Amino acid sequence: MGIAKNGIIPTFIKILIHKRGMKKKTLVAILIFSIVSCSNKKDSLDHKGSAFTVAKEFYLKPNIKYPDELDLDYSMSRTEYSPNDSIYFVHIKATTKNGFGVKVPVTFFCYLKYIGSNEDDDLEIKNWKYIDSSVE
Questions:
Q1: pLDDT over 90 at 119, yes or no
Q2: Closest Cα partner for 47 from 129, 97, 102, 118?
Q3: Which of 10, 43, 58, 87 lies 20 to 30 Å from 26 when distance is taken between CA atoms?
């Protein structure tokens, strides 16, 4: 029956008890706490891709003349997360047509904060708080 009955975890516990002299109950409690705390938290970095998509679809495309002509440069674009204030910084480099129909470079900056819960769809605009943006 795999990991639970006669697999990796019981063998790991036996090794730690034997080698380190740990009490079995203490070790099991630490193991359970580690598994539960890791599985219940959704890492804030999970929202980086969504922050990029939300910034592009809801804040960049509506502010350019030809959104269908937007050609993203993914190698020069990035999303960063600041855990101190829970803010995502999205930096997008792209080219698009200007008012004269000429392809021009565009640099877009956007600051967003995720306000949804882990169960929410992180691509919905209602789960994001707009802070600031600029198009150059």
A1: no
A2: 118
A3: 43
DSSP structure class, residue 68: G
- Phi first, then psi: what are they for 129, rounded to 5°? -105, 120
The alpha carbon torsion through 44, 45, 50, 54 (nearest 10 deg) reads 70
Give the integer Cα–Cα distance in Å for 45 and 60: 22
- Contact at 8 Å (CB) between 108 and 85? no
Burial annotation 2-40 (CB, 10 A radius, 16+ → b, else e): eeeeeeeeeeeeeebeeeeeeeeeebeeeeeeeeeeeee
Sign of CA dihedral 81, 82, 86, 88: negative
Q: For 40-60, what is each residue's pLDDT tens digit?
A: 344 455 789 999 999 999 999
Contacts of 47 (CB under 8 A, 6+ apart): 81, 88, 114, 122
